[in-house]
Amino acid sequence: MRSALLLVAALLSFLHVDRLIAADDKTTKPNILFILADDFGLDGVGCYGSDRFKGKTPNLDALAESGTRFTHCYAMPLCGPSRCTIMTGRYGFRTGGASNQTAGHPSFKDEPSIARTLKQAGYATGMAGKWRQMGDTPGNWGFDEWITDPTAGGWYWRNSYTKNGKLIETKDDVYNPDVCMGFTLDFLRRHKEQPFFFYFPSHLIHGPILKTPDSKVDGKSNLYEDNVAYLDKQVGQLVAEIDKLGLREKTMILFSGDNGTARFGAEQSILNGRHIHGQKGSMLEGGARVPLIASWKGTLPGKQVRHDLIDFSDTFATFAELGGAKLPDGVTFDSRSFAPALRGQKGTPREWAFVQLGGKWYVREPGFKLTQSGDLFDMSDAPFVEKPVAKDSESAEAKAARARLQAVLDKLNPASGKASADEPPKKRKALKKKNKVKTAAVASIEN
Q: Which of 60, 288, 291, 370 has the fewest Cβ atoms nearer than 10 Å?
């Protein structure tokens, strides 16, 4: 009798522990809120040293103060390839989405999706904002609920938007960033009891630069600065709602921009008195180097600055690791998780970042970058100066960097990937042949 009672007690104890483990597994999966600004480089945020916006981005600055500001994050130089890289965790030469013209070519039927991966791990998934460069619909790519602008026309003041595949028309023009915000807040409230992944790709501050609901009616506003202020305001609204719902310690908030500053603001892309080299669409620092701010109260210590190299493919593996999701089998991923950094740990940061736009690319390490045409640059004074290094340079440091970076490009072999619409196959074939000659030359120098 006593043995039977002990057996029952042990069984009940086991079941209790098992339930606790299951409950703990659910509660320890963090919510993930990924806010992606449009055409928003380092110079758009006060805490990055922006002369123009010092003290004018209080919500973004507060987010950085509460967590970590990363200094070396690399997007692709245009919207489409950046978004395709985020969604798939793969570089454009693998997916075919290497330019704005081709970012819509990769299909959800053939490519992995971070939304689908997290959904399979038990996450509710939502998206609100810009989608138009990607193919298919957000729903196809794994978002349970989504809202975006129609495929034609502008995306700010208009009388329609698309919600879960249905065109919604309004009597009067509405400000679509506000429509997206309302949709997002509703999603957060309804899914507060389960892990959620919400992707908020804002249209702000992509052109045309128009008035916001907060612009002065007398027409004396600086509309560009108004748009940055409205973006910052929306970041504040999202964080405030997470706080109000009691989810701040359960939510990892990540903010970035999809490429560098566009022509509307590039003339004032100044950090601490120095002009950033390049802008959106260029293969320079100003084209791809973007802000990256992470906040996770109670897990990630505040007031941190990290110089780890991160590129846009990395969000996939990072979110998957945080959510306990399994990466799809049979796929070559470029993504490398920086989840340890989001927990305040050292981790093993990547040694190089890769950037591509159409038939041009480069690989970047902390001190140097090497392009597809074999041009090496000293990046010790970036993002302000990219100093060309002569191919016959006798610098041992430069020679070693050239060899290291060429080895990376050889292994990636972008020229053998899927051709972009703006890069005819014949030209890609010639480039591939040229790169082989270059590799042999580097090998002879190495020896």
A: 291
Q: How far apart are CA 114 and CA 127, in angstroms?
A: 12
Strands (E), 10-144: 31-37, 68-74, 124-128
Residue 154 burial by CB count (10 A; 0-12/13-18/19+): exposed, middle or buried?
middle
Count of other CB atoms within 10 angstroms of residue 207 = 14
Of the candidates 374, 434, 436, the residue with the CA atom closest to the CA atom of residue 401: 374
Alpha-carbon span 402 to 389, nearest angstrom: 10
Q: Exposure pattern of 209-222 as b/e (b: 16+ CB <10 Å)?
A: bebbeebeeeeebe
Q: How far is CA 120 from the centre of its chain?
A: 21
The answer to pTM > 0.90 is no
pLDDT tens-digit profile, the chain (447 residues)? 455 554 444 444 444 444 333 334 445 899 999 999 999 999 999 999 999 999 999 999 999 999 999 999 999 999 999 999 999 999 999 999 999 999 999 999 999 999 999 999 999 999 999 998 899 999 999 999 999 987 666 689 999 999 999 999 999 999 999 999 999 999 999 999 999 999 999 999 999 999 999 999 887 789 999 999 999 999 999 999 999 999 999 999 999 999 999 999 999 999 999 999 999 999 999 999 999 999 999 999 999 999 999 999 999 999 999 999 999 999 999 999 999 999 999 999 999 999 999 999 999 999 999 999 999 999 999 999 999 999 999 999 999 999 999 999 999 999 999 855 455 444 444 444 444 433 333 333 232
Strands 196-201 and 124-128: parallel
Listed in sequence order, the DSSP H helices in 158-275 are 176-190, 223-244, 263-266
Residues 6+ apart with CB under 8 A from 169: 159, 160
Single-letter amino acid, residue 231: L
Backbone angles phi, psi at 168, to 5 degrees: -105, 125
